[in-house]
Write a sequence for this structure.
């Protein structure tokens, strides 16, 4: 017994140590809270002042509602309007103090203020009530009157005087935006963008202008040029990140497959980071902009700040303007403020504007639909579902947002074609949410919101007219009947509305509370899915359950295998701050059983010998065998066996140039894909780029009958010429394009994948010559290396070296099929030696390369030349070392002195008078070279 006690003692001591450590941390946190938010630390309080309260345990929603919560500081610390007199309630309180006005500021700002001295100045952002606030003694730097905000500058000592002004409602640091991540390529398969483009070929975003809010994209990029609308708000700084985002949204695909965006006909307008508040309405109206992409963040914030309120206000007023934000790439970070402070991997949205209700925040997934660990997650500061949806953004949420903005442009274009006007932002949001795909058996969650973006599903729902519009009054109700056919696997209904903006720092963002419920033909009542917003990890991870939603302005009901008949949906105006509230309902049917190929789709072009995701959507479960055929199904080659049907499969395509079919075989049935094509992708090279003619070429594909050449014409890669050879001559007097691409044409007449577009002037090839290099060997010989772009119509190569009296021919060799040639100059002279090659054509003409130079020292460690010299004296040294060059006139006076360190240095002497000078080179105090030179 004694031994057991002794053995257990270290564990007990460790547990006791952890206990006291936790208590110490709690005391430290309490001390900081009281010091920061207690009334006597800033100013005296009045009887109506709010209270700083710590609860013994994290309070639930009912407790907070009874206290009139003003702001959550942590899961246990709150600013409250009152404490109920109930003695039972009082037992839940650890302590309470009158609160000062610091609760109106963010934790980040208070931390900065604490680090400053009283005389130090700080620039901050405030929001205020009233029309035009004055904030003595601060200086107003910039006003944003439309959203009752301002940027001010003040000494730290004047902070109490500013924050206690009754009309100042919030204060924050100046947030600096940063792109979330750089995305390298587009993947249109995971989010069914390829299916949407194939099923709705007339919907390309032509009637839509998308604003890209960040630094300026490359307006000369051939995938973007011709659709760029110059803006007074655009940044002067170009950014590769912005170019990639713009390409994902609306790339024309001129450069190749990875340059094709979601809405390739949409126009693009740039807007810089001049302000993180919404751009002025006049900007959107000037260019007819209906969607703006925001692939940036500015640090984790958990509050409904003035920027969040401003975006909600702009969307509610404009109605048809959609703002799409990346949720952020801080999914591994822990929030440091707000009700969810300290809860790992939750509540880490990067920017308070992403807490707005009417915007769309987009999380990031992997290719298998799993959430990326780095993707920022919800809930919003008040427990709302964020992000609304997720998308596969290759490497982060920047690309996920950009792809979603592109899909919004497609939805808006399709709606304009149907109705001639722009759709409400609430309808667009409802279409995206309702068509989003949840994990099998999954429900809405704080990680991926309502599911994974499905472009084809959103357009299909819109095209089918599966949506309703209505208006509800305070205390009133509006009802709809939706027919439910027999044999459905699932029915899904989503309610969305553009909610009026709440006041900045509001403890809950929702202003107009609408409630939805549905009744099926069998009399069963169905409520929306709701999540548990309680600030504890086990609560936030709980699966969604059915209940009344009083937090979100998006609500969703899904019903598995509903009975046939009418679904009666009722929307109630539970609590409205306005006279009425418009809303939209969207619904979707999922039939059973069902199977549909998603990649490849009909006539899709897959690259040969490349990993390609094979995707399908099905209500079947279990496993299946996968095979392919290149002979119309006469024979089948096995790809894989017993594949799980609910997961995609990555297929390494065969090296073939063929029409192909896939077959997925289940126990009692099989599904054959529509025909598609597999082809190698050719590469276009520049053969030569001479004065009057250029030539491009590509490798021969044995199975191809001919080749289709494309040229960039009026912003589009258009068919230019069909050839049977593997090269094309470009006469410069008549050719209008610098960009060319090629695709192989099969004997049956179909085209293979088009190559990447190549600008023949940018491949580093001159008139036949790609490179000519001159390199010194260890024994002071010179190795010449020549690389040709093409050998077409070339006969011979002549190697030449410059001599004092002109060019000397060193040797020659015939041209073969090779493009790489070498020559060794065994006896170069001392100094800077220049070389070139002369290329002889079959018709006797000579084409000369550019000059290549090399420095040679034979008999000396140091060489100084030319002598006589006119303007530049060159010093060659066999070693890298620091030396002093000194020039003296014949009287011994120093006229020039310079420190040099490279093996070859140029010293300007053009300001010296003509005459004779002594040139000396010193290594430390030792003279290592001396010679007279003549300055001309």
């Amino acid at each position: 017994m004694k031994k057991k006690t002794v053995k257990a003692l270290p564990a007990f001591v460790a547990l006791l140590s952890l206990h006291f450590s936790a208590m110490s941390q709690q005391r430290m946190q309490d001390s900081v809270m009281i010091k920061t938010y207690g009334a006597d630390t800033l100013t005296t309080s009045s009887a109506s002042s709010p209270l700083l309260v710590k609860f013994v345990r994290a309070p639930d929603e009912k407790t907070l509602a009874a206290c009139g919560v003003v702001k959550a500081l942590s899961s246990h610390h709150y600013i409250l309007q009152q404490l109920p007199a109930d003695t039972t309630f009082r037992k839940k309180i650890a302590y309470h103090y009158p609160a000062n006005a610091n609760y109106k500021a963010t934790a980040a700002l208070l931390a900065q203020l604490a680090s400053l001295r009283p005389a130090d100045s700080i620039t901050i952002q405030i929001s205020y009530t009233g029309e035009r606030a004055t904030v003595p003694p601060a200086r107003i730097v910039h006003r944003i009157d439309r959203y009752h905000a301002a940027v001010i500058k003040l000494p730290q000592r004047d902070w109490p005087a500013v924050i206690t002004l009754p009309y100042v409602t919030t204060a924050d640091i100046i947030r600096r935006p940063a792109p979330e991540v750089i995305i390298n390529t587009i993947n249109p398969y995971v989010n069914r963008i390829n299916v949407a483009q194939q099923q709705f070929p007339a919907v390309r975003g032509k009637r839509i202008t998308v604003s890209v809010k960040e630094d300026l994209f490359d307006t000369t990029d051939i995938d973007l040029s011709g659709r760029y609308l110059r803006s007074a708000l655009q940044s002067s700084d170009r950014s590769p990140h912005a170019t990639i985002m713009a390409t994902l949204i609306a790339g024309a695909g001129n450069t190749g497959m990875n340059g094709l965006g979601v809405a390739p006909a949409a126009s693009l307008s740039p807007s810089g980071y001049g302000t993180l508040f919404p751009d002025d309405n006049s900007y959107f109206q000037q260019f007819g902009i209906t969607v703006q992409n925001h692939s940036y963040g500015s640090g984790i914030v958990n509050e409904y700040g003035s920027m969040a309120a401003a975006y909600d206000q702009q969307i509610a007023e404009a109605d048809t303007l959609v703002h799409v934000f990346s949720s952020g790439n801080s999914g591994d970070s822990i929030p440091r403020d707000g009700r969810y402070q300290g809860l790992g991997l939750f509540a880490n949205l990067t920017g308070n504007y992403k807490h707005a209700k009417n915007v769309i925040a987009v999380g990031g997934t992997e290719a298998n639909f799993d959430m990326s660990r780095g993707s920022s997650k919800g809930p919003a500061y008040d427990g709302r579902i964020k992000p609304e949806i997720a998308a596969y953004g290759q490497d982060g949420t920047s690309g996920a947002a950009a792809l979603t903005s592109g899909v919004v442009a497609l939805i808006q274009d399709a709606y304009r074609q149907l109705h001639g006007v722009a759709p409400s932002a609430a309808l667009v949001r409802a279409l995206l949410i309702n068509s989003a795909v949840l994990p099998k058996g999954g429900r809405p969650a704080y990680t991926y919101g309502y599911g994974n973006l499905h472009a084809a599903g959103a357009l299909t729902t819109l095209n089918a007219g599966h949506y309703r519009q209505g208006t509800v009054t305070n205390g009133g109700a509006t009802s709809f009947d939706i027919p439910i056919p027999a044999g459905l696997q699932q029915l899904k209904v989503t309610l969305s509305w553009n909610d009026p903006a709440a006041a900045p720092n509001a403890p809950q963002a929702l202003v107009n509370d609408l409630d939805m419920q549905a009744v099926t033909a069998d009399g069963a009542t169905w409520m929306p899915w709701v999540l548990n917003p309680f600030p504890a990890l086990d609560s936030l991870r709980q699966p969604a359950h059915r209940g009344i939603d009083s937090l979100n302005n998006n609500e969703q009901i899904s019903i598995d295998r509903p009975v046939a008949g009418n679904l009666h949906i009722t929307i109630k105006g539970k609590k409205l701050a306005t006279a009425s509230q418009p809303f939209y309902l969207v619904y979707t049917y999922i039939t059973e059983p069902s199977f549909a190929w998603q990649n490849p789709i009909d006539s899709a072009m897959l690259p040969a010998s490349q990993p390609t995701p094979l995707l399908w959507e099905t209500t079947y479960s279990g496993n299946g065998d996968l095979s392919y055929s290149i002979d119309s199904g006469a024979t089948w080659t096995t790809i894989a066996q017993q594949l799980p049907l609910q997961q995609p499969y990555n297929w390494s395509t065969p090296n073939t140039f063929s029409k192909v079919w896939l077959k997925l075989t289940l126990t009692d049935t099989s599904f054959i894909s529509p025909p598609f094509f597999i082809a190698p992708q050719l590469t276009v090279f520049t053969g030569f780029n001479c004065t009057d003619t250029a030539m491009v070429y590509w490798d021969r594909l044995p199975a191809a009958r001919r080749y289709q050449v494309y040229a960039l014409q009026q912003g589009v890669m258009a068919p230019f010429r069909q050839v049977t050879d593997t090269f094309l001559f470009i006469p410069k007097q008549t050719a209008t394009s610098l960009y060319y691409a090629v695709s192989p044409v099969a004997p049956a007449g179909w085209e293979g994948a088009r190559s990447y577009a190549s600008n023949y002037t940018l491949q580093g090839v001159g008139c036949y010559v790609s490179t000519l290099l001159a390199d010194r060997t260890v024994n002071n010989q010179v190795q010449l290396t020549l690389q040709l772009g093409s050998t077409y119509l070339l006969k011979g190569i002549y190697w030449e070296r410059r001599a004092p009296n002109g060019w000397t021919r060193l040797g020659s060799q015939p041209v073969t099929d090779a493009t790489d040639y070498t020559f060794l100059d065994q006896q170069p002279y001392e100094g800077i030696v220049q070389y070139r090659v002369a290329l002889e054509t079959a018709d006797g003409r000579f084409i000369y390369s550019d000059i290549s130079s090399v420095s040679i020292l034979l008999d000396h460690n140091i060489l100084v030349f030319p002598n006589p010299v006119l303007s530049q004296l060159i010093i060659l040294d066999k070693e890298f070392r620091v030396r002093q060059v000194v020039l003296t006139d014949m009287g011994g006076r120093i006229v020039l002195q310079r420190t040099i360190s490279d093996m070859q240095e140029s010293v300007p002497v053009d300001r010296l008078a003509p005459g004779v000078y002594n040139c000396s080179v010193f290594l430390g105090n030792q003279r290592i070279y001396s010679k007279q030179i003549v300055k001309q």
